[in-house]
Inverse folding.
């Protein structure tokens, strides 16, 4: 059984013809199909001069139209970081693929940059040097136009690290690419993949090849299933999709457009001539696919066929489909090619865009260009029907809608895919209570600062959306930002007024490690976490879980007895300076609950640091101990330290280095030798905390003031990290040992954790002794930070009710390391900003390059929950030449003076079959009238001294180049007979020359034809050409003479007029010039 694969992203540019001024996108394409519209039109301006080459013969193009994309020359190379040189050297298809793959990945919202994402693409590799004669000056030393770059450049500029595979199996290329991508995911070679194809038809020579191969229909349209099917019409398109395993897509709450159950590919082998459809090979690919999918073909609700509208291909494909899929009720089939033509490389993906919309709308659009069903198809026998009006999609299986798709390439490469509709989604696990007025986080992101600002402006204009749309919009924008290199954010909240986006930040290629820093005591306040408790279930449940532990251990409740977190208890019990028995567990409760909340939204740290009391929460956050143990530790610490509050101790923060702090301490000790004063914390190279007796603390602050050193008291009466803590050692260590006995085992951090006890990374198991030393020893936060930042740049997040360490961290983190505070204390009469603070943290983390925020959980709304129209990506495109400025391109664009006079004239029996009917002694040669016409096509009004020098044979298999040269009034016709490529010399043969004039001609005198007729007694009728047969033979189209009347001195010849059908070959026929030039 194959692994089910979800299609989670799509972007498309499809031809619109006269129906729109812009190319069709995936969403607008289906409306186009439902309305039965077509995109066929004449060759657009800016391509080659198709009218000059239109015709049915060799060296000519059969049609002058098809379906074309608009603006294929436009590209924003700067946005993708591509040099102008490389952009010029790239095939336009590669440029389109980069753009559409990017947009498909953006649509998917997956985190793709520097991830194991594969790239499987196919495109027309038509760069400047192969759309016209190569020119050495078109080569700029760039390899961006190499065939491998069709996929490699997509991987490079989108930074995809998975397999990068270009595919080319002709018209089945994009299905082959999909099959390889599905296999790569199933084999574990990549986690997701982008699959894309681009067909552009601007290469001159291809149109001749298709014409000579008799592949193109006479009207340039595809007519699938129609009796008049006579070939296909060429079409252009670019489509990209993103796929990943279905289970992962469900887990990630991705938009799922459809599910790929299985794909299969094969070859027709040598059982038929190349290009001929082989029913058994196509059937085999289908059977393989359904076997892998473990589904029955008769469960299929609709089949999207390859059907291009060829006389042989359609019946071959449809009849085997009828045999395999027939059942008691009708089998619905269709082909998108009637609407847009055959997009060749992109044929499968163009059809897939249609199929995805069929799943979404449960409507099958009408097939167009069907007047009479092809009688070679056994419609009635197999109960086949092509919908000609919009038809509901039936459902033949309780397992869901099923659609089959087939694809074939002209070289014999066949494929089949079995798709199922998107799965039914279960409702999200509610993590927040719904609040109509809740704030929303909007992340604006792009590949440049310019586009990020432009996108911010577009989002600002959308900020008036309904309350239902806002969280979905936030989810979509947040998900899409994860792979953008520039980001900014804004918070939409009625209290904040208009959206104010932060300045765009450039994100590093690899995200910085996120460091959670748990603060110590000091930032606690009465309203901390209150709004988080009210609004977020995860936070509330965590707090309630710990409060039950607190009540078991102390007999009191933080909520009920102190009014913390829920605001419903007795806040009057709290004083300005809280007891240590409340400070430490309340800080731990807040930090642990906030950690749980952040983790539920995907914000998990890569590194942990705990400052002093913050090492309690660190124990849990690092995975070294369960929540219960960590919180019990906080309660034990608070209870053990409570007796020290009566000892007259305290702490202070002073802004100086260690050396200055030691001098201040020494000065105080000399005055107060019986009092303890010691360094308690190394907060930064210029910030120290001291602890000891309160009288010594007060004196130290006075000394600081005299020395110009800032200092302030810390709101605590417990002299932490000083020798005064020795008085609680015995009781505290006894409780610590009992705690670690209740929770036996190794307590080793599961993620990198830096100890502020040692200043080093923790590698050993944490034990009871560690937490005694944590209490007694100074906090070595400076040393831990220096060790951490010595070799890496990090993003720091302080986990605290109010910032206390941010300034210290910022001074040590180094340039470019973001430092983010979580919560802020507000003034007593101000409303809480916890929710806004939480969104700000998410926004700052995301803008700094962190991709872990789960916006679906944050907003409690998935990206697929309502249809939100989004602004288009703000590219700033400029034009790049489709053709080189070389003589080879001039050949494509230069108008023809006439059928026998243009710069690149080549003539033989295949290019000008009418002239080849002029046969002299068994050899088809250019008639004299042809040479005369070549000169007249310059616009001459008269020819003088015409001299016919040598015959020009038309029998050569390869038509020789014929030069019609005009130099002032002298003209000549010559052909190139040989070319010495080493010397550069050409051998030429002169066939005719003379002089011409452009002067207005004199009016001709009237001729009395009746009188001449009376003088010419002799008459030759139908036997005229028989009399010439001994040396010449004229084909039927040149036999224009119907009667000849002649005498000894004059003749009157009756000539049949010009047939318009012949004017593409010649304007003057031999019979029209031979006799008017007789002497």
């Amino acid at each position: 059984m194959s692994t089910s694969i979800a299609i989670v992203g799509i972007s498309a540019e499809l031809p619109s013809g006269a129906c729109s001024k812009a190319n069709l996108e995936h969403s607008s394409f289906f409306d186009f199909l439902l309305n039965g519209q077509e995109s066929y039109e004449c060759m657009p301006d800016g391509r080659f001069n198709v009218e000059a080459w239109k015709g049915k013969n060799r060296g000519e193009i059969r049609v002058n139209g098809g379906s074309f994309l608009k603006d294929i020359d436009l590209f924003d190379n700067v946005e993708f970081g591509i040099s102008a040189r490389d952009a010029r050297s790239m095939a336009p298809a590669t440029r389109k693929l980069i753009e559409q793959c990017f947009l498909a990945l953006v649509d998917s919202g997956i985190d793709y940059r520097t991830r194991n994402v594969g790239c499987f693409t196919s495109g027309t590799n038509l760069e400047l040097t192969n759309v016209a004669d190569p020119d050495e000056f078109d080569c700029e030393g760039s390899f961006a136009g190499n065939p491998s770059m069709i996929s490699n450049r997509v991987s490079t500029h989108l930074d995809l690290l998975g397999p990068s595979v270009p595919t080319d199996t002709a018209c089945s290329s994009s299905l082959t690419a999909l099959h390889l991508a599905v296999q790569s995911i199933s084999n574990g070679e990549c986690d997701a993949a982008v699959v894309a194809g681009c067909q552009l038809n601007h290469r001159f020579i291809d149109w001749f090849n298709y014409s000579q191969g008799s592949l193109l229909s006479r009207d340039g349209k595809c007519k699938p299933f129609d009796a008049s099917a006579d070939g296909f019409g060429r079409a252009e398109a670019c489509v990209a999709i993103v796929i990943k395993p279905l289970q992962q897509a469900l887990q990630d709450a991705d938009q799922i457009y459809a599910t790929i159950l299985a794909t299969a590919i094969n070859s027709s082998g040598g059982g038929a001539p190349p290009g001929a459809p082989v029913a058994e090979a196509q059937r085999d690919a289908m059977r393989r696919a359904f076997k892998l999918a473990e589904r029955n073909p008769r469960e299929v609700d609709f089949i999207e066929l390859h059907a291009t509208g060829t006389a042989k291909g359609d019946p071959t494909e449809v009849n085997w489909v009828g045999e395999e899929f027939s059942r008691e009720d009708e089998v619905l089939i269709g082909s998108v090619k009637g609407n847009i033509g055959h997009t060749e490389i992109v044929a499968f993906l163009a059809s897939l865009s249609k199929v995805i919309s069929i799943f979404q709308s449960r409507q099958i659009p009408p097939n167009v260009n069907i007047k009479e069903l092809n009688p070679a198809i056994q419609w009635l026998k197999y109960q086949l029907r092509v919908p000609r009006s919009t038809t509901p999609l039936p459902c033949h299986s309780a397992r869901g809608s099923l659609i089959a798709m087939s694809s074939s390439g002209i070289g014999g490469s066949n494929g089949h895919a079995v798709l199922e509709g998107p799965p039914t989604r279960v409702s999200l696990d509610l993590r927040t209570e719904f609040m109509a007025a809740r704030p929303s986080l909007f992340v604006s992101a792009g590949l440049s600062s310019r586009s990020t600002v432009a996108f911010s402006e577009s989002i600002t204009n959308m900020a008036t959306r309904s309350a239902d749309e806002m969280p979905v919009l936030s989810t979509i924008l947040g998900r899409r930002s994860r792979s953008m290199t520039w980001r900014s954010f804004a918070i939409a909240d009625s209290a904040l007024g208009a959206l104010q986006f932060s300045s765009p930040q450039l994100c590093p290629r690899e995200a910085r490690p996120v460091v959670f820093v748990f603060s110590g005591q000091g930032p606690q306040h009465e309203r901390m976490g209150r709004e988080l408790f009210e609004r977020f279930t995860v936070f509330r449940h965590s707090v309630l879980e710990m409060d039950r532990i607190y009540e078991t251990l102390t007999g009191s409740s933080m909520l009920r007895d102190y009014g913390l977190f829920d605001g419903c208890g007795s806040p009057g019990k709290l004083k300005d300076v809280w007891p240590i028995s409340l400070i430490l567990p309340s800080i731990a409760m807040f930090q642990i609950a906030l950690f749980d909340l952040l983790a539920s939204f995907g914000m998990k740290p890569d590194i942990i640091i705990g400052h002093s009391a913050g090492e309690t929460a660190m124990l849990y956050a690092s995975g070294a101990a369960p929540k219960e143990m960590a919180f019990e530790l906080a309660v034990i610490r608070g209870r053990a330290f409570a007796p020290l509050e009566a000892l007259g101790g305290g702490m202070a923060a002073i802004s100086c280095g260690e050396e200055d702090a030691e001098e201040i301490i020494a000065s105080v000790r000399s005055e107060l030798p019986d009092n303890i004063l010691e360094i308690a914390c190394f907060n930064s190279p210029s910030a120290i905390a001291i602890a000891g007796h309160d009288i010594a603390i007060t004196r130290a602050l006075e000394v600081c003031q005299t020395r110009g050193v800032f200092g302030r008291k810390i709101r605590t009466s417990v002299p932490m990290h000083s020798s005064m803590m020795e008085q609680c050692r015995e009781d505290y260590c006894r409780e610590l040992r009992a705690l670690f006995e209740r929770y036996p085992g190794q307590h080793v951090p599961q993620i990198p954790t830096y100890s502020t006890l040692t200043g080093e990374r923790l590698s050993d198991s944490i034990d009871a002794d560690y937490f005694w030393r944590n209490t007694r020893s100074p906090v070595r936060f400076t040393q831990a930070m220096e060790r951490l930042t010595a070799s890496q740049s990090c993003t720091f997040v302080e986990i605290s009710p109010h910032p206390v360490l941010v300034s210290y961290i910022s001074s040590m983190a180094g340039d470019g390391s973001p430092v983010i505070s979580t919560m802020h204390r507000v003034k007593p009469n101000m409303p809480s900003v916890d929710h806004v603070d939480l969104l700000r943290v998410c926004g700052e983390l995301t803008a700094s390059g962190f991709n872990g925020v789960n916006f679906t959980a944050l907003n409690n709304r998935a990206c697929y929950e309502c249809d939100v129209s989004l602004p288009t990506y703000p590219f700033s495109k400029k034009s790049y030449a489709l053709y080189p400025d070389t003589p080879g391109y001039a050949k494509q664009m230069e108008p023809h003076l006439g059928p026998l006079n243009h710069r690149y004239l080549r003539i033989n029996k295949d290019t000008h079959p009418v002239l080849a009917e002029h046969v002299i002694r068994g050899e088809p040669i250019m008639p004299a009238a042809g040479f005369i016409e070549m000169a007249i096509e310059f616009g001459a009004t008269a020819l003088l001294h015409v001299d016919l020098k040598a015959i020009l044979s038309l029998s050569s298999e390869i038509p020789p180049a014929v030069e019609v040269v005009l130099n002032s009034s002298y003209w000549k016709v010559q052909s190139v007979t040989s070319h010495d490529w080493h010397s550069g010399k050409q051998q030429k043969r002169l066939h005719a020359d003379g002089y011409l004039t452009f002067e207005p001609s004199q009016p001709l005198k009237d001729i009395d034809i009746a009188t001449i007729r009376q003088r010419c007694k002799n008459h030759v009728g139908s036997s005229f050409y028989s009399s010439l047969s001994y040396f010449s033979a004229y084909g039927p189209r040149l036999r224009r003479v119907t009667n000849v009347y002649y005498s000894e001195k004059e003749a009157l010849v009756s000539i049949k007029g010009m047939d318009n059908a012949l004017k593409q070959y010649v304007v003057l026929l031999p019979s029209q010039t031979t006799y008017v030039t007789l002497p």
